[in-house]
Amino acid sequence: MARATRRRAVLAAAALAAGGAAAAQEPGPPAVGRPCMVCHGPLGQATQPDTPNLAGQPASYLTAQLRAFRGGTRRHEVMSVIAKPLTDDDIAQLAAWFASVRVEVSAPK
């Protein structure tokens, strides 16, 4: 595992462990999605250059991808670990939340 990927996995695990009341006060996904914030940002806007934005993605797409990571049909060193413990309800909550984040785009000037 590359150093940057290992670092993100450790940060995500720490965020998962931290959870709790302090995290509930910050903007972001449901508590089960706190590890997502490490790489994907609190509102689903990626904070890492090689990480996709989740904000505004269709819930059906997010659900399918999280289930694929959880089941092993899609592999990624960090996402496979993060998605493994998610229940179907967790995935549905996360997908609905990120899909509900409003994203506005405009043409370049």
Verbal overview:
This protein has 109 residues and is mostly helical. It has six helices and no strands. Helix 4 runs antiparallel to helix 6. The protein starts with a helix and ends in a 9-residue tail after the last helix. About 8% of the residues have low confidence.
Q: Distance N terminus to C terminus?
A: 41 Å
Radius of gyration: 14 Å
Look at the structure and give the mean pLDDT: 84
Shape: globular
Q: How many E-type strands? A: 0
Helix content: 40-55%
One letter per element, helices H and strands E, the order comes to HHHHHH
Poorly predicted regions = 16-24
Q: Report strand %.
A: under 5%
Largest sheet: none
**Assembly state here?**
single chain
List the helices and strands and how they pair.
Layout: H1 3-18, H2 20-24, H3 36-40, H4 59-71, H5 79-83, H6 88-100
What is this entry, summarized?
With 109 residues, the protein is mainly α. 52% of the residues lie in helices and 0% in strands. The N and C termini lie far apart (41 Å).
Jot down its keywords.
109 residues, mainly alpha, 6 helices
